[in-house]
Amino acid sequence: MHGMNLSIVSCCLLLLGWKQCAGATNGDDVSHNSTSNGNDQGFGDCECVPYFKCNGPTRNTGCDDFLSVCCESKTQFQDEIIPKKRDRGCGRRNPNGLGFSSNGDADHAQFGEFPWMMALLGRETTEGNLNESWSYQCGASLIHRQVVLTAAHCISGKYMMYKIRAGEWDTRTENEFYPRQERTVKTAILHPEYSSRSLTHDFALLILESPVKIQNNIDVVCLPAKEEIIDNITCYATGWGRDNFGKEGDYDVLLKKLEAPILDGTTCESCLRHSRLGSRFKLHESFLCTGGQPDIDICKADGGSPLVCPIKGKLNKYYQAGIISWALNCVGVPGVYANVIKALDWIDKTMTDNGFETSSYKY
Asked: Is 187 part of a structural domain of the chain?
């Protein structure tokens, strides 16, 4: 988490490390098949191409990125491939991915599985730093074609400029079947009650210079209804979190996901009182918690990234319950999120005040 100085907790980034996935098979988004073939007998010369351009067996050899395969020239598609259209509407998760499904690693999201997931990039604007490259700051989520929701602590200061990247999945390549998009952040609006000391009301809305184009791998997330009861359910947190606790960790190259069971506030507060926060710690109402189990590693996530939960009675539709805010360490201690329900009135008012409709995230 960049640009932060917390006196109460040390912030860290959540989610599990990952193992290289063992190949790929196509899903229902592309009208051809490309399957991994471990037998190289009779296999001619091949070249690395994006997976969706191959209509035959692929050699089990290393290409530069996860989305490329070694394919014989005679089985490569030469014509333009037209993607199938999918249903629109907020919160639509694609559990089998778009175009193909990766095998074997449950810790990683499929390509296009969470189309609202955004990467927030930043760079300094002070003299001498104007030519610095963009660096990854936080995760974020799309709630309107021109508005992104993230954590206030991700916006580190007035000498920074920001942009978002939509449709990102494998950070090593741009060979995704659906292109990613980038937009400059025009205005960052922090919650008026945000505290950089305690991280209460850790909400920020980012207004983009221009709207993103909605496509199969880029779409908005729903926000919960005020009366939604977020308890005793399992949700998902996503991000490109570090593989080790603290500054020495490296970011992952593939988007990760973590199943995160919701904890009620009383249980979370009790767990945290047994940590270094001490017996007098009180969980603020603007937070909610997940995890706390000894077998779930929740210390390495991206601040600002969404926590999404299933909408009852609606298959593969999700609302954003939280924003990753802070955590203490890796094992057995709950992760803490900004509770989106507590910010709904502020989000709606801010959207309206800036000329944006709120129906984009209603369900």
From this structure: yes
